[in-house]
Amino acid sequence: MKLDFKPAFLSIKGYTKEKFFTDLMAGIIVGIVALPLAIAFGIASGVSPKEGLVTAIIAGFIISFLGGSNVQIGGPTGAFIIIVYGIIQQFGLSGLLVATVIAGVILVLMGVLHLGTVIRFIPYPIIVGFTSGIALTIFTTQIKDLFGFDMESVPADFTLKWIEYAKAADSLNGWSLAIGLASILIIIYTSKVVKKIPGSLMAIILMTVIGYVLKTCCGITGIETIGDRFEIKAALPEPMLIPINMDTINLLLPSAFTIAMLGAIESLLSATVADGVTGDRHNSNTELIAQGVANIITPIFGGIPATGAIARTMTNINNGGRTPVAGIVHAAVLLLILLFLAPLTRHIPMSCLAGVLIIVAYNMSEWRTFRSILRNPKSDVVVLLTTFILTVIFDLTIAIEIGLLFAMLLFMRRIAETTSVSVVTEELDLSRDNEAVRTPDNDKLSLPKGVEVYEIDGPFFFGIANKFDEQMKQLGKKPEVRIIRMRKVPFIDSTGLHNLEILCKSSKKENIQIILSGVNERVYATLMRNSFSRHVAEECICKNIHEALAKAREVTEGKNLS
């Protein structure tokens, strides 16, 4: 299998000074937009703001440098908050780093095995279900900081969170709530007034200044800030070894698989949305490999999982970014902010960051899409609600695993529904047939006495094999010849092959001759690989129905003569 790895950065052609300045401005703007989000995602995930910034810098650079999209911006995203928080609660920060590295390896393998296009076949209700579930969970995690509740810790369980919030309601801090609500309003209305300045950045600047004035000039001490919880050093962390062995792999593989699947889905969705706006076409396998490399390297510096970020990618496009250079500039801007402005972040109010994340959660919720899917067929509604409830009540790992299982079951069900088995015992209608040369006079073919034709229309796999078997048993007749017409069978799997072998064996015991008709090259090769000639002689595997009927006549006439 040929490696499909063609980074967009290495394929840039005709790059001019004008394009560079456009990418430079887009990268600077995206870097500014990414700053509050990286800090907020880091804190909400259960780590410090520095881990969020480090992830945005290192992963953002790698994804732009090695990725298969010209405009994709990578970094920490809201989708990872819940899974990262859960892993840290259960396995600690070291467990998260190991799980992220394993997830990176899985992503690289997915790209190497050309699985980039397979991700697109995940049903939309599953994606909406767990995205909306993540959004509700993110909103729930921010209630403590928004209201300034005096709580030592917040339970990981969704229901327990609200129970504890109710108990802590009497400790509500009016100043924190005011700053949080003001931040939400600023974010909402800034985008309507000033298009170029991100509302989240405006909210953080204004609320930080107001909070600082209230604390220093007015003596108000109840406003908790980043500096009250974390210390941010103005330097990149030193690289460290990630302890990985079989025990940790076995323990963390389910969580790593969830990170990998979520990263793959979100990054490829983001790249696909970007393609629709720019007219480009990303390389999905290259993108997966780049995402994998980013998630292998970033944890070495203490970073958290990263993927393509739709909001930042669209910001890049809307500000003129058209090559990976803009993404590299965005990473460089964040690095400069970390090195020279990191101490200032300690004054940012926690309730302000809660407001930022509540807006992120609202944008993720896709409540209009959620509502519209509820009007779809029942199967879509069941998948949507099941994935949503599992994400909220249990965790994202279970939701994705069950969601993927649902996807496979629905796929098999729909394929089985499109496959049919029909039986003809007297006259065969060839009016819509293109299997062989015919004339208007032979549109109808009378079947010889003692001959039955069974036509399979669709894939002959385990989902339809039992249906075929049941149809055979219901007839209860014993013809002399059974013609299995397979002209519309694109493939046959091991279960279908097994059922066909059982039919041949039982027919042989009853002195019934089996003849196959219209077998395509792919199905024929499968039959020969499995030594099917032991059950049906090669001369009884015919190219078309005319040859099959001629062979059937030979059999019936031979029996009659004897």
Give the secondary structure arrangement, pairings included:
Blueprint: H1 17-44, H2 49-66, E1 74-75, H3 81-112, H4 124-141, H5 143-147, H6 158-167, H7 174-193, H8 199-216, H9 226-229, H10 246-278, H11 284-297, E2 307-308, H12 310-318, H13 324-341, H14 350-365, H15 367-373, H16 378-393, H17 396-418, E3 420-424, E4 427-429, E5 444-446, E6 451-457, H18 462-475, E7 481-488, H19 494-509, E8 513-517, H20 521-529, E9 541-542, H21 545-561
Parallel strand pairs: 6-7, 7-8, 8-9
Antiparallel strand pairs: 1-2, 3-6, 4-5
Please tell me about this protein's structure.
- This protein has 562 residues and is an alpha/beta fold.
- The chain folds into 2 domains: 17-411, no CATH class; 420-561, Transcription Regulator spoIIAA (2-Layer Sandwich), CATH 3.30.750.
- Helix content is 61%, strand content 7%.
- The chain contains 21 helices and 9 strands.
- It has helices at 17-44, 49-66, 81-112, 124-141, 143-147, 158-167, 174-193, 199-216, 226-229, 246-278, 284-297, 310-318, 324-341, 350-365, 367-373, 378-393, 396-418, 462-475, 494-509, 521-529, 545-561; strands at 74-75, 307-308, 420-424, 427-429, 444-446, 451-457, 481-488, 513-517, 541-542.
- Strands 3-6-7-8-9 form a 5-stranded mixed beta sheet, with helices on both faces. The protein has a two-stranded antiparallel sheet with strand order 1-2. Strands 4-5 form a two-stranded antiparallel ribbon.
- Strand 8, helix 20 (521-529) and strand 9 form a beta-alpha-beta unit.
- Helix 16 (378-393) packs antiparallel against helix 17.
- The mean pLDDT is 87.
